[in-house]
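Note to self: user wants both folds in one dump. Writing first protein now.
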Amino acid sequence: MARLAHELRQLRREAGGPTYAALARRAGYSVATLSRAAGGEQLPSLPVVRAYATACGADPEEWERRWHAVSEKLAEAKQADGAPYRGLARFEPGDDEIFFGRDALSTELLALTRNRRVVAVIGPSGSGKSSLLRAGLIPRLTRAFQSEEPDAEARPAAVRVLTPGSHPLGRHRSAFIPSVGDGDTWVIVDQFEELFTLCFDPVERNEFIAAILSARGPDSRLRIVLGVRADFSSRCLEHPGLAVVIRSASLTVTRMNADELRDAIVKPARLHGLVVERELTSRLIADVAESTVALPLLSHALLETWNRRRSRTLTLDSYEHAGGLQGAIAQSAETLYARLDTVQADIARRIMLRLITPGVDGAPDTRRSTARGELEALSGGREADKVLESLTRSRLITLDGATVTLTHEALINAWPRLNGWIGQNREKLGYQRWLTEAATAWDAVGREPGVRISPVRLSQYVALFSRTDRDELTPLESDFLAAGMATHRRTVRNRRATHAMSYLLVAMTLLTAAMMWRQRRLLQEPRK
């Protein structure tokens, strides 16, 4: 739908950019109707699309084919939305009816947040932290707000959810201002590890931590809940205030036991009038017991099994055809990748690598939230839009407004092709993460033409990116490097000119001294 709206806007630009009033006269529809058609908020009707195309001088039959393609994709998405399982996607607050297996942990977390103003939820990647926060905690807070509970503090004045990103305080400063009204404001900071993987400014990082810890003050009306990946808890312990939170107010997300797993497998299907074979349930519980990243793999395998169900029954045979617990993600990803042509496959590779922050000093690779515009800039927009839609439909990535991210970090290791790309490009990826951040900052201050880039960084660029690799950079990144190289060349020329002038001055000084000495000798010689 967003792509069709983008193409309609592009069509209008290619037609010379007529006003909507002019288009309305040609199309026979109102300005508001045509404007909404290109707005992307909802799918316009087929007659409106045909009229819009005709008014812009395009072939209406071609645009009818495009409309049908989008309509079919929306129908597929709607069918997928009716699935009882979330796949790699996390559970959201509206999914609490199908969020099974975490009742005890959700209740324990709610009690902890009422007794402590800053709480940390700690668990390994794939343990279900995000889902616990969103589909376990938030609905319970909402029900407390809607209840007639006499304790006003038990009712949240507001519940806010955020992820730190690269500029946590710049983006989220207002989130720490309590909402007007009775009760506390809950701020849930999911994927807290982004503070260490995406934020490169230690000052902003410490200020963000200070904003979190301010909730412990006696007059605070904030309650903070942090979702922390276990392998980054040591980074939290380096900060005295966070160390206190980890020691005294943390909840560890443990593995589900067999009964909890059975609930997570069977009860969502039962809500949809489906049946799960006993053999499949037993096999899933056994397979999960052997996996270290269980829940996203389980959820994706169940979704793929549901897609292959026989009538109303999810069978062991369908599960095995989907690839099983360990192979379902790779099979889904490879199926999508095989449908892409050569150009689209290369764009998909670039997009997926842009969504990765490589680990350093033994740290694991992590996902990176990325602006959609950054990804579209890799190929002029249109082809990138097609690939983004394909990756989204396959639930490998998530589009949230203008932000793109991997649906789950489990994809990094579960898809061998992606893992191989990362291994082959690890050093280049580290450089790209620096380059993107530096170029964005340069753009924000007006693209200073005299920007200086260290010779070491410029040498890295030459060493890491061959001429054929340089189309992997966005126009902004290329412009930033070009400006830095131009500054470097001017600096080198000026330095050489200064050295040459210095040599010339020395030579002239020596020559002048020699001439003066010669003159004195001539004056001192007796005349004959």
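First done. Writing the second protein, which came from a different request thread.
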Amino acid sequence: MTAELVRGQNHPLSQARLEIRISAGTPIVAVAALGDENGRIHGEEWVAHPGAPAQPGLEVPRQAAADHRLAVDLDAVPEAVHRVSVLLALPVGGTGPVRFGAVAAPFVAVTGLDGGEVASYTITGLEAESAVVALELYRRQGAWKVRAVGQGYAGGLAELLADQQLSQAHQLAGSINDAVSQGLARSVQAPPPRTADGDRSRQAAAPALGPDQGGTAPQPGPVPPVSPYGGQTPGGPGQPTPQQPPYPGSAPDPDTVTQPSAPTAGGPIDYSHPRRQNAAPPPPPPTAPPAAPGQPAQPVAGDATGWSMEERLYNQVWGMFEDLARTTAAYRSAVDFAESRMDKELEQVLSDPRSRIGGQGDAAREAARARHAQLVAQAREALDRDLAQLAAEADVVEPALPPAYARWDNPAWQAYRVPMEIPMALRLGDLHLPEADRIRIPMLVRLPLERGLWIDSGPAGSSDGSFTDSHAMSRLAMETAVAHAARLLAVYPAGEFTVHVIDPAGSGAQPLAPLVQTGVLAAPPALGAAGVADALGRLTQRVDLVQMAVRGGAADALPPGFDTSQQLLIVNDFPHGFDDRAVNQLRYLADEGPAFGVHLMMVADREQSSGYGPLLDPLWRSLLRLTPVAEDHLADPWVGHAWTYEPSLVPPGSQVLQQVLSQVATARTKFT
């Protein structure tokens, strides 16, 4: 289980390659510093910060953001290093808060590359401080540990770095603040494995230098991230690989890839994708004619390299997500540059009394606005070009997706048959950005699920500005949960996935009807407090048995007839019907269940459980939050986008859900 640390407490680390996840609720700057056995920082080269994000064994983001991921490889830090400190600071000179006492308490978690939390720390007690040493990883007698620190500084980064005995503290703090204010926002990946499984050749345009950087007007295009851990970049859709941040909220994936070939400024997207094996697989089938000379390559469904069409499509979906994120980031960066340049030119006009009024000033202002419009038009032209190619690819890929990846209205479900093997991933909905509203990227999560799901039934506004009342939201949330559960039942072989339901008040009876009427549930929904206690008790006991068998190396010693299938528990209307013991059992299932085949799907309004206070905060953090309406709540820690999530719902009037569940029930009867 995760060690929830308090200030001054430490915890041993069993692995060297780690990820530090930070959530603050407001944009903050994340810095990592190397220290000797006395904690002293020897120079600026011992600090990874937004202006210099890569140092030996460290990589940090190049932006101020509410959520961060820092990559740490303790085996790669110099021998003289005995301490790695994680430093957080509020940006200087912006419009945001200037002290941590005015924002929610920052949360820091140390995780392995599999996404499992090793230790976490909520930094409480901060008031006037604007910078804080969150935690430190330190070496004692050859072993590494993590300690919760929480030491704040009212004087900001300069005072914090000076206290770390850095002689150039004020100069470095200034350069960090300058780098953040200039918007050097790009990605940070978790450290990749020491050997790569293949190469990544999908590429997009890179931005040229702007006039103020010694170049011409900026041409939008993503900049490939550079990692200190072997120069590798991301790969894999829906879930992160060890060197790639995932779809928002996803858990890591063990696949690896290598650095892409150098991008060509202003060039089109190359429709080639990452390789998942060391040896080259068979080439994809030529389902589209070759492009005419000088024309963009025509997209092909499954053109990503891989050993099966499913793997090819999986990688291709990731490539589309990556391209959309990068080209949108480049467009936003170019627009920001154009606006900052125009503001600078207008400020120069206003600061000179001779040109402030009259024809000369009007001409200067008009010229500044014209240059701004020209730069924005160039950026939009490049964005539209890339979006047109991505839209063409989406039009080809979407109809070719297998049921596990497809929307409910895809014809693949009309030809559905119960599978013989578990697929790589499952579609939970779609992701899109406001600049490309037409393009929908499938949100895929790897199977088996590595974390639970939370369908938020609380009051929320949809992306179109409409609001849903609490009763309608609760019903829609339960319908969303049923659609997700039906997908899970449909993509697993017969008898390998079991669903349980807790509905204490019976409020979900109507949305649950497809599951109940087709007979795919393990038992009728549990009602009342007694039903809650019975269902939680049985699943808790199951986790205990499997945990003891696995850890004791006696998996074959499970009782005869023991159900070895994956288990899903759907909980509706939490915390109604739950006492303190049931709440503790639920937390136990959320923490320990996924590793031993028991998964949790919560349909709940968090505010209704506010009476428990911070006791349930770890529970909500452990779950992937999804919404029953379109909402831009999923943060992309790679380039800082807020992605709009849309759930995968059955079209109104469609009978596809009942047809699929009926086939699942029939196959289960034959299996037993």
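Dump finished. Worth passing along: The longest helix spans residues 309-351.
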